[in-house]
Amino acid sequence: MRKCAVGILDSLSLLRKIKRGDLSALLDITNEFDIVMLNLPGQKVVIPSSVDLLYDFFKADQKGLVKTPRAQHYTRKAMGVGLISTDKEEWREKRNACRGIFNTAELNGFTSTMDDAIHFLFSSGRVNAQLDVVMASITINVIGRLFFGDFSDEDAEKIRISVTKMMEPTFRRMISPVPFLVDPLNIRTSFYRKQMFDVLSANIISARRSPKPNLIRKYFAENDCVEDVANLFAAGYETTASATVWLLYELSRNEGIKRRMREELSSIESLEDYHKLQMQIPLTIACVKEILRLYPPAWILGRTSTEDILIGDMKIDSNTDVVLSPFVFHRSSKYWDKPDLFDPYRFFNDKALEHKYYFPFGIGIRSCIGEKLALLEIYHILFYLFNNFEFEIDSKKVAMNPHFTLKPAGSIHIQLKPKKNEQQITGTGTIRRPTLERDLSK
């Protein structure tokens, strides 16, 4: 097991690079060593990057590791007490309470609501717009309509702005090694937290009175649930939106794959239930898997040891931060051929990849409860977009902006041109499978 202890100055330098969005130094050192130990002021950090340690980490997570207290503190200040800001028994209670929302039977009932929201946003006249804003608006509207039955575009925009304004500075506080005696985050978040909670509270009240089917009335009828709903909104919309943005960006740089995806999605009349999608749209699913490998939205997972523990044969002292990064594993040359290349065909050729060192949604009981909903949203967005529009996206090189999610740094614009009526969804329902050879240019 190759280990590397990094001195305090080099550790601070690495942290500064990460804050600036430069993840290359992190990849370099984790490619060379299996365990990287950072020394920061008053803080010890361990970064494992070996597959042998991966499952030991998740086993230890059930015993001597907790969500980093600093992370819980700041997320609670922003979002209140909910699924992403709790741990252990409290977290289990929150997860069990909303488990029914994300089962397959419930998901299959979401599709018409999802399609209505997607149609509404794509038909709103935004023919030349910032891609991340468009996708965030779509995913917030989808979640809003599922939870409340009715959800306005104005409320969706307030939620988008509030979450962005709160969570980006929250992330910077979470990874800062220097404590803040006077925390300006209190001032920055108070207005946007109130704005978001006011919007959610009003919609929760309306949903309980609404005759339309909605998740609030079904799963949260008796509870004061605004903080739970805030957590689910924050966790649910940004991850889906950022993954879709990155996928459309990579497709704009790979015209051959984009053309084949269009052929696949236009060859069917509608998307079937969740379990039948693999047969319907295999290339599309492989592209989504590949984008989640290259740009895992939840790119970093942090835990703190509450006691001396073992991960593999390595002793972790109490009060040590253990950082596991899907991004590090997904981009490692130790495990992937040409790890920086967008190549969805790798998932056709080696299904076992998904079970070794590919975990965009986590592993085991800690895996993301909203995984199926996120994937279903992405598939429906792509299906609607490819069947109803010709589109162009900036193909210039875009850097990453690592915060809570792994977003693009700067803006990417999408130019939408509606198809003529005869070109819209007219598929026969038959599946035209793509050839499986690695042809990334035709």
Architecture blueprint of SSEs:
Elements lengths: L2 E4 L1 H12 L4 H9 L2 E6 L2 E6 L2 H10 L4 E3 L1 H11 L8 H10 L6 H5 L2 H12 L5 E3 H18 L4 H23 L9 H25 L5 H5 L6 H27 L2 H12 L10 H4 L1 H13 L6 E5 L3 E3 L2 E3 L4 E4 L1 H5 L15 H4 L21 H18 E5 L6 E3 L3 E3 L4 E6 L24
Parallel strand pairs: 1-2, 3-9
Antiparallel strand pairs: 2-3, 4-6, 5-13, 6-9, 7-8, 10-13, 11-12
Helix pairs in contact: 4-9, 7-8, 7-18, 8-9, 8-12, 9-10, 10-12, 12-15, 12-18, 13-18
Structural summary, described in words:
The protein is α+β, with helices and mostly antiparallel strands and 442 residues long. The chain has a domain at 75-298 and 345-423: Cytochrome P450 (Cytochrome p450, Orthogonal Bundle), CATH 1.10.630.10. Helices cover 50% and strands 12% of the residues. The chain contains 18 helices and 13 strands. It has helices at residues 8-19, 24-32, 51-60, 69-79, 88-97, 104-108, 111-122, 131-148, 153-175, 185-209, 215-219, 226-252, 255-266, 277-280, 282-294, 326-330, 346-349, 371-388; strands spanning 3-6, 35-40, 43-48, 65-67, 128-130, 301-305, 309-311, 314-316, 321-324, 389-393, 400-402, 406-408, 413-418. The chain has a six-stranded mixed sheet. The chain has a three-stranded antiparallel sheet with strand order 5-13-10. It has a two-stranded antiparallel ribbon with strand order 7-8. α12 packs across α15 (282-294). The longest helix is centred in the middle third of the chain and has 27 residues, at 226-252. The radius of gyration is 22 Å and the shape is globular. Mean pLDDT is 84; it is low at 422-442.
